[in-house]
């Protein structure tokens, strides 16, 4: 790093500095990338000689990883998460209309499809899917996520989902919280080590099929057969490269068909399990009634009227890929608000700031998919957990300001 | 009991349709070839893009959209006390 100037117009705590990238640049592209982009003239402007860095106070960016297959509700989760922090997430203003990035006051969400090393034609020629590690550039992913974590802005490529091409890059500034979402946030060990918290959305095959029917049947050309064929064709790669990542996740949200109705295959009523790893720094799992016991609870009765098929909760310690975990499970769906506040009052360690915050968050987004069942409930709870984790990390750093050295 | 929703913008819709046809063709010879698998992966990617485009389109209230451009009109003015 050559020049290093601090200008503080807003507050003394804001650290902004302008730097000239040296030859050992870790926020640009390595040679492989330049070859990929050399077809477009517009990209010549990529090599911006100055990088302005503004780290938020003395804090480093907190990085969260979210893994899930496409069409499994990642975007709904993202909207719930950003809402916990306040404000709405929007695409970068004035940039590429097909950008996958979402920015809010505190949070920036980047889609890992932007790190595809092969575009749609390239994958077709090689006969590989987007799930295949060979179609992704983990070196660039690691370099750029690390740079953002260290407070350095990066020029991140954009994978255009409509055209299937890699578009010119966009500037990503270091936010307070960076969420990397996509198929492979925990695949590469170097990227995995950068994550402060990781989540895996695990949708069972039956539910995935039902969801994709809902999503695609109205679309021209799709039939039951084509939806089935698409899931089947991607399954070997999914099982080989995506699914194994769940062993590394700090929290897994598992979505299964209900057990309340025998032989149900509609996929409308869901059994959702929140699997929480024990012993993770700054993360203490939610529990029902009594920490560490095994409990089965049907809230319907004298105090609560539920319609068919009712609601059933379960809680208990378990083992998951050799790790000690706590699992909270909800089967069934809510009909009315009083049910949710009743349930919330019996859950402990929610990391909420006031009584009823979970219910209030769910009500705010009553129109999102999953707001009447365990998917919405557990996504909201994980959102509160991430807020607490962020606040704890910031508090720990404030205690040792001298150690928060600049890279 | 399937809910019919508005289809995505035509260009993506056409692409989805086309990609399904291509995938069915690519798989007619060898159902486990890389070519076949990549073709179905393209179908999934386009279907997801079409669904996102659909969500974006239906999410806006006509009055909200109007008020964004015309905040000074009678029907849009709001005052904080």
Automatic annotation (TrEMBL), chain A:
<keyword id="KW-0150">Chloroplast</keyword>
<dbReference type="InterPro" id="IPR006083">
    <property type="entry name" value="PRK/URK"/>
</dbReference>
<keyword id="KW-1015">Disulfide bond</keyword>
<keyword id="KW-0934">Plastid</keyword>
<comment type="similarity">
    <text>Belongs to the phosphoribulokinase family.</text>
</comment>
<dbReference type="GO" id="GO:0019253">
    <property type="term" value="P:reductive pentose-phosphate cycle"/>
</dbReference>
<keyword id="KW-0418">Kinase</keyword>
<comment type="pathway">
    <text>Carbohydrate biosynthesis; Calvin cycle.</text>
</comment>
<keyword id="KW-0808">Transferase</keyword>
<keyword id="KW-0113">Calvin cycle</keyword>
<dbReference type="GO" id="GO:0042803">
    <property type="term" value="F:protein homodimerization activity"/>
</dbReference>
<keyword id="KW-0602">Photosynthesis</keyword>
<dbReference type="InterPro" id="IPR027417">
    <property type="entry name" value="P-loop_NTPase"/>
</dbReference>
<dbReference type="GO" id="GO:0008974">
    <property type="term" value="F:phosphoribulokinase activity"/>
</dbReference>
<dbReference type="InterPro" id="IPR006082">
    <property type="entry name" value="PRK"/>
</dbReference>
<dbReference type="Pfam" id="PF00485">
    <property type="entry name" value="PRK"/>
</dbReference>
<protein>
    <recommendedName>
        <fullName>Phosphoribulokinase</fullName>
        <ecNumber>2.7.1.19</ecNumber>
    </recommendedName>
</protein>
<dbReference type="GO" id="GO:0009507">
    <property type="term" value="C:chloroplast"/>
</dbReference>
<keyword id="KW-0809">Transit peptide</keyword>
<keyword id="KW-0067">ATP-binding</keyword>
<dbReference type="GO" id="GO:0005524">
    <property type="term" value="F:ATP binding"/>
</dbReference>
<keyword id="KW-0547">Nucleotide-binding</keyword>
